[in-house]
Amino acid sequence: MLPLLLVALAPFWMSLFALGDEMNFPQPEFTSKYTFPLTTVPVPTSEIREWIDVAILLVVLSLASWLAVKKRSRRGLFWVMIFSLLYFGFIKQGCVCPIGSIQNVALGIFDTNYAVPITVTIFFVLPLLFALLFGRVFCASVCALGAIQDLVVVKPIQLPKKLTMALSMIPYVYIGTSILFAATGTGFIICRYDPFIGFFRLNGNSPYLYLGAGFLLTGMFIARPYCRFFCPYGVLLGVMSRFSWKHLTITPSECIDCRLCEVSCPFDYISKPNTGLKREDRHMGVRRLSYLFLMMPVIIALGGWIGHRMSVPMSRYNNTVYLAEQVVAEKLNPNLEETLETKTYRAMGLSESDLMAGAEKVRRQMNFGGWILGGFLGFVFSLKLIGLSVTRTQKDYEVIKPSCFSCGRCCSYCPSDEMHRPNFIPGSKPYIEALSLKDPNAGKEGQLAEKKEGKSEPAKV
Amino acid sequence: MAELVKQPPRITRFTFLRKGMRAFVGLILGAIGGWSAFGARRRNTVWQIDPMKCVQCEHCSTACVVSPSAVKCVQSYSICGYCLLCFGYFQPDADASLTSAAENQLCPTDAIERVFVEDPYWKYNIREDRCIGCAKCIQPCEMFGNASFYLQVRHDICVNCNNCSIAMQCPSGAWERRPASDPYMLKHKQDYPLNKGQGGPRNTRPINALNAAQLEIELAPKIELALAPPSFTSK
C-alpha cells in the first residue's frame, strides 16, 4: 500500500524534486525469497582478436609482395584480394583500416589525452613499410576498399592527362584536412566519408549507400576512382613506393618494346619509352624550370594564406567552436531559438569561460594548421609543376612507381615472361587486345629513329 | 706514364640519391610510428556513456550506425523501487487499471517487461531485443523514480567505430573512450552520496531545467486517477 500512498500524496512532495537528490522510493523488503539479478555486461571482442588481425595483415602483405615481385602472378594477387575483401571488408566490417589509422596516429600525436592502441599503430606502419620495400602491394591485394572497386571494373576508359593531373591534388587536400580535423578533435572525416563502409556493414542510411553506389557505378568505367583520386593513404604509399627497394616490373628480364602491355593497365599507370621523341631546346627548358623554382615560394605563401582564410569556416565543424558560437549568438539575439545543445549546456551549469577558452584553443590550432596545410598544398602543387617540366630518358616500358598498385595485370601481357607465353595463342583475349592498338605506326617511327642514331644516350642526371 | 683511366663509379649519383631518399623516408616512417607507439595503450578502447551526464536526448537511438542502436536501456535491480506505478513504465495518462496495454506504456517498442513479484512489488525487466535506446523510460525514472533505468552501450552489438557518431552528437558530452578491460559505467547503489539504502545516482540538473515543469503537468492526471475510488487490479 505504501507506493499507492506516496502516489496519492504526490502533489505535495513532487515540488521538492527541484532539489532532486533526496526523494525516492525506499528499497523494497521482500518477504518471499528474492535475489537481486545483476545487470548483464556483454564483453567487447577480446584483445587476442586484434593481434590475430595484425598477424593476418602481416601474412597477407608478405604473400602479396611475393606474388607481385617474385611470382608476378595476376591470378594469385586476385585471390588474395578476394580473401582481403571478405576478411578485412565484410567480416571485420572495414574498421579499423590503415586508411583511417592516419587519423588515430594524428590524434595520438597532437592530443595528450588520447593514446593510440598499439595494434592501430601497427596497422598504420605495416602497409607503408611493405610499400617502401616492395611497392604498393597493399593497394592491389590487401585493401578492402580497393578490392571492392577492382571487382566492378568492366570497361575502363583512359582519361585525359590534364584531368588526372588536376584530380591528383585531391588526395593531398584530403589527407591534410583529415590530419587537421583529427588532431583538433573535430572529427574523423576519412571514416565519415568512406564510401564503401555501408556495403561492408550491410547497413547504412541513404546518403551513405548512394555515395558508395555512385563510386561503384563510376568504377565500372573509371577504374578504382577512390584509389586514384581520393585515397589519403595513397599519398603516403606513393611516397614510399617511389623509393621502394623492389617493385613489380612489367617485364621480368629485358624489355623488347613490343608494346603489348600498353593496353593492359586499366589505371593508365604504364609510361612509355621516350627515346624516339624529339628533345626540347635545352635553353627553354632550363628557363622554364628556373621560373618554376622562383614561383615556388610564392605559391607556398599563397597556399598558406588560403589555408589561413579557410581556417575560420573549417573550425565551425568542431563541436566546441560551434557551441560557443551558438551561445554567443543567443546572447546577442534573445529571439534566437535555443538548440538542444545550448539548452543542455546551460542546464549543466558549465563554466562559460571554459567553453570560450576551449573554442579559442581550437580556433588557434585551426589557424596554425591552416597555414601549414595551405603551404604544404602549395608545395605539392609546385612540385607537380616541376615534375611536368623534367623528364628522364626512358628506354623500356615501366610502371609509374608511385602510383602503380602492383595488381599484376600487365605481367600477364609480357611475352618475355615464360609463364605467360601461353596467353599469346592467336585467338586468345590478351592476343586480340594487344593487336587492336590505336595507332600502330607511331611506335615504328620511334624504333626506326633509334636504329638510325644507334644507341640512345644515357640519362643526364 | 700511362694515363689513368677513370673507372666507372660503383655507385652513380642517381642510385645514391635513391638509396638516400629511401633511407630518409624509412627513418621518417620509423619516427612517426615510434612517436605514435610511445605512450600507446596496449589495448583498444571502447565507447561508453556516463549515466551521470546523460540527458536522455534520444540521439542514441538515431545516430548509431547499427540499427537498432547498440545503446540500450539497462535496469539496476538493486536500485529499483519495484513500484506498482512505475513512472518509467506507465504513460502519464495511463488507464487506472494499470494493464500492460500498449497505450498505457511509455516504451514505444514494448521493451519493458512487468512481472509480479509479491504484493505490492513488481519487477521491471528490459527486453534487449526490443529496446532501441530512445531513453523515454529513463526521463521519468530519473526524475521521479529511483533512477534505476539508464543507457549503456552494449558491446556485443557495438561495432566500436573509430569515432563514434553518437559521441560526436551527444549534447552533454556523456560519451567517453574506456579501456576494453573496463567497458561499462554501471550505477551502483553504494556510489550514491546521500544513499540511505534508497534510490540511485542520477543526473538531475538538465532534467530539472528541461522537463520538470512539463512532466509535472503530464503526471497530474495520473495522480488523480490513482486517487480515484475503484481499486487497482494487481495484474
**Strand percent estimate of chain B:** 5-15%
The count of strands of chain B amounts to 6
Helix content of chain B: 25-40%
Most extensive interface between two protein chains, with residue counts = A-B, 82 and 86 residues
Q: What structural class should be given to the helix and strand makeup of chain B?
A: alpha+beta
**Strand arrangement, major sheet of chain A:** 1-2
What is the overall shape of chain B? rod-shaped
Please report the total strand number of chain A as a whole number.
2
In summary, what is this structure?
The complex is a heterodimer of chains A (461) and B (235). Chain A has 461 residues and is mainly α. Chain A contains 21 helices and two strands.
Question: In words, what does this structure look like?
Answer:
The complex is a heterodimer of chains A (461) and B (235). Chain A is mostly helical and 461 residues long. Chain A folds into 2 domains: 72-270 and 402-434, no CATH class; 282-389, no CATH class. Chain A is 59% helix and 1% strand. In chain A, α5 crosses α6 (118-134) and α17 packs across α19. Chain A is globular. Residues 8-23 and 441-461 of chain A have low confidence and may be disordered. Chain B is of the alpha+beta class and 235 residues long. In chain B, 28% of the residues lie in helices and 14% in strands. Chain B has a two-stranded antiparallel ribbon with strand order 1-6. In chain B, α3 crosses α5 (204-227). Chain B is rod-shaped, with a radius of gyration of 29 Å. At the A-B interface, α1, α5, α6, α15 and α18 of A face α1 and α5 of B.
Name a few traits of the molecule.
heterodimer, A: 461 residues, mainly alpha, 2 domains, two-stranded antiparallel sheet, 2 strands, 59% helix, globular, disordered C terminus, B: 235 residues, alpha+beta, two-stranded antiparallel ribbon, 5 helices, 14% strand, rod-shaped
